[in-house]
Amino acid sequence: xxxxxxxxxxxxxxxxxxxxxxxxSIIILAVGSALSSIHKLNTTSAVKEKALAYAKQxxxxxxxxxxxxxxxxxxDSGTCTKQLSxxxxxxxxxxxxxxxxxxxSCWLPYPDGITTDSPYYLNDNHQLTPGVxxxxxxxxxxxxxxENISGDSNRKKVTVTVAWPGSQQGIGLSTIFxxxxxx
Length: 183
Hints:
Helices cover 38% and strands 28% of the residues. The protein is built from 1 helix and 10 strands. A hairpin with a 7-residue loop joins strand 9 and strand 10 (171-178).
């Protein structure tokens, strides 16, 4: 009788092995797929983090140079009634649109020496230059868009966008700069 039981178990053990192999294959595929997704998320996250760092870097520089690029300091009398003023440190003459009486300065519609709309990039001397920047030895591009808010050149919306191949929109940062009174 023991022989009959052993003969019947031979076929069952082959089926058990096949079921075990199928289950192991499913588990291995699921783990492999999960690991692949985690790797892709980590790579995407690292690229976005790098792009954000490039955008922050530009925003900080634009924040530091905004008065050198845009500000007109009023004449020695402290008023802008003649609308003539001296720009920044280089002594260029510039004309302010009718400023508020409380202001002793104004911002011009365009950066120093530029007469075109955005986009801009920062050259090696941290000066705004028309165009889009290809960031050195990377697949990233960076552009800085600056627009006057509601036609007021004393308020500017600054948007820095960093893009890379395969990105739909890239990473963007925006802020608003205001020419405060008595610059």
